[in-house]
Every structure is written in structure tokens, then in C-alpha cells.
Design a protein that fits this description.
By secondary structure, the protein is mainly alpha-helical. The protein is built from 14 helices and five strands. It has one domain: ABC transporter involved in vitamin B12 uptake, BtuC.
């Protein structure tokens, strides 16, 4: 539904602003894609982490910020994505193709998992997702071919370091562009309205005919596949090495929550801003050790107290502006005297 004319107002979907947004996004992606040919490799290599952080934050925000499913177990799919990389690489696929195949398989795995997870609500759902992540880790360490509890590395990963970093950079860039693009598309579709109605009041949404479980399941699967892609990139950036204790760490979920809450939950821009803030702090202050974690905690508390909607959430509300228009607005219109009220779907 693009526009509805009714009396003196019509519903506007920000179509012009959406077109501008898409053009700007495409230009940014193209500029970032050619950046390795212009900038020093040490600079662009560090951006790989920023790309997968934005991907993780966007996927968690899609799950919690729009569907109301607060998960602390997304590390399950990060770990499965990384270990799926090993599985399909052993079967003969190159590491980058293996990452894509692994994400698809992890998305399929998330389908039956959702039937278990959706039997839980609220805090029980959050705890349940953490338990699922631990179950996934325990299953992985039972296989000697996957390195058991020791971890393992990609076999025959002998590509030239320069080309390897370049391919990983492009893969990470493609993943973050896909994550933001899919989120933007979903939120501008009817599913976006359904998601927000579920988040606000699931019972009312169901009463109005929204297919709650199906909608939540689609988002659950998309989030799992996106986290799996990010997990594969994390593994590739670590020269194809992963261990269960590291890749299945609950700290990933903690950082996702931190980035989204700092930036602004329930917005597309918020996770991007939160990821950039966390990336810069990690880049320059991680050497402080435990004090670095203290600073992160203090920042999270301050933002929660004084900017409860996050940095972008507060800015967006104050100035009534968004870079990714996904809502609606009523625009005054003056119909002709004998004009018939029409609508387009």
C-alpha cells in the first residue's frame, strides 16, 4: 500500500526519501567496496570488525527491537556459522562459499529450534535461548572432526594474505549491506507493521488477524542466518581459527545488547551508531583491560538513565527525522469538489 487518499489527508510512505536513501546506500557500498584499492590495507582490514558488529547489532535489533524477542543466545548461530565453515570447507567448498552455505544451513536449523523457543515467553525465552546456545556448543565439542573442545582451523587455508583480507573485507561488506537492506525492506512491508504490532501487544495483534508465530519465525530464521554469516566472517578474520569457548561465548550477545541499547532499539540507525561507538572504544581503549569493561558498563548505565531510547532514538524523536523511513505520516490534501475517494494497494 503506497498511498491512501481519504478526505483531507492521505497516508504518505516517504517514497521520495526512500529513493534517496537507497541511492545514498548504494553509493556508500560502492565507495567502501573500492576503498581497499585507495586506502592502506591496515585501515580497511580493521573495518571488517565494524562490518560484522553492525550485522550482529542489526540482527539482534530485528529480533528484539521489532519482534519483541529478547535473546541472549545468538552466539549459538555465530558458533554454528563458524563451524559450518569448517564442515563445508572439508567437503571441498572454498572458505567464502562455505560461509554462505553454512548460513543457509543454520537458517534451516533455526526453523525447528523456533518451535521449541517459541513455547517460552519473556524472560523465560531469553534464558531458553542461552540454554539452546549451550546445547549447540556441547554438541559441537562432541565431534573430533571439529576439533572437539580444542577448536580447529580451516584446512589448506593458504591464500595470499593480501587477497585473503580483500575477499574477507568484501564478504563482510556484502553481509552488512544485506543485513541492513533486508531489515529496511521487511520494515517497509506489511510484515514490518505486523512485527511492531506483535512487539507492542501480541495478544491484540493475534486478535486482529496477524499471523504471529509465522511472522516471528521468519524473523527468527533471518536473524539466525545473519548471525551465522557474521560468525563465519569472525572465523575467517581470525585466519580460519575458532574454538568453542570463544565463538560460542555469551559475550557476543552482551555486546549486541550493548550496541543496540546505546544506539537506539527499534530503529535501523541505532544499531549502526551503537556498533560504531563500540568499535571506536574497542579500538582505542581495549588495552585498558578490566577498566575498559568498567567504562562500557558506566556508559551503558548513563545512556539508559539519561537517554532511555538510545542516542538515535532521542535524536529522532526530538527532530522527527529518520535516515531510513519505514513509518507513515498523514499529509493534508485538498480533493477536488467531485473527486471520488480512491485507494491503491
Amino acid at each position: 500500500m503506497s498511498e491512501l487518499v481519504a478526505g483531507a489527508v492521505r497516508v504518505d510512505r516517504y517514497r521520495k526519501r526512500m529513493t534517496i536513501t537507497l541511492i545514498v546506500m548504494a553509493a556508500i557500498v560502492i565507495a567502501l567496496a573500492i576503498a581497499p584499492y585507495i586506502l592502506d590495507p591496515s585501515i580497511t582490514s580493521s573495518w571488517i570488525k565494524l562490518f560484522y558488529l553492525i550485522t550482529l547489532a542489526t540482527m539482534w535489533n530485528l529480533l528484539a527491537g521489532y519482534a519483541g524477542m529478547v535473546s541472549v543466545g545468538q552466539q549459538a548461530y555465530i558458533g554454528l556459522g563458524a563451524y559450518g565453515l569448517f564442515v563445508f570447507n572439508d567437503l571441498g567448498a572454498d572458505p567464502y562459499t562455505s560461509a554462505i552455505i553454512a548460513s543457509i544451513v543454520v537458517g534451516l536449523i533455526a526453523l525447528p529450534v523456533s518451535f521449541v523457543a517459541f513455547r517460552l515467553r519473556g524472560g523465560y525465552f531469553a534464558i531458553g535461548t542461552w540454554v539452546i546456545a549451550e546445547v549447540a556448543r556441547q554438541i559441537v565439542i562432541r565431534f573430533d572432526a571439529l576439533g572437539a573442545g580444542r577448536g580447529r582451523s580451516i584446512s589448506e587455508y593458504t591464500a595470499d594474505p593480501i587477497y585473503r583480507n580483500l575477499f574477507i573485507y568484501w564478504l563482510a561488506l556484502g553481509i552488512v549491506a544485506l543485513a541492513i537492506g533486508v531489515t529496511f525492506y521487511l520494515l517497509r512491508s506489511r510484515m514490518g507493521i505486523a512485527l511492531q504490532s506483535i512487539r507492542d501487544n501480541e495478544v491484540a495483534a493475534r486478535a486482529l488477524g496477524v499471523k504471529v508465530n509465522r511472522t516471528k519465525r521468519i524473523v527468527f530464521i533471518i536473524s539466525a542466518a545473519g548471525c551465522a554469516l557474521a560468525g563465519a566472517v569472525i572465523c575467517l578474520q581470525a585466519i580460519g581459527v575458532a574454538s568453542p569457548s570463544q565463538i560460542f561465548s555469551v559475550s557476543y550477545s552482551a555486546f549486541m545488547i550493548f550496541m543496540v541499547l546505546i544506539g537506539g532499539i527499534g530503529t535501523i540507525e541505532g544499531p549502526i551508531i551503537g556498533a560504531v561507538i563500540y568499535f571506536v572504544m574497542d579500538l582505542y581503549f581495549s588495552q585498558l583491560g578490566l577498566w575498559y569493561l568498567v567504562v562500557l558498563g558506566v556508559l551503558a548505565v548513563l545512556v539508559t538513565l539519561f537517554l532511555p531510547k538510545g542516542i538515535w532514538g532521542e535524536l529522532s524523536e526530538r527532530f522527527n527525522f529518520s535516515l531510513f523511513p519505514v513509518g507513515h505520516r498523514l499529509v493534508p490534501t485538498t480533493p477536488e469538489p467531485n473527486e471520488t475517494v480512491t485507494g491503491r494497494r
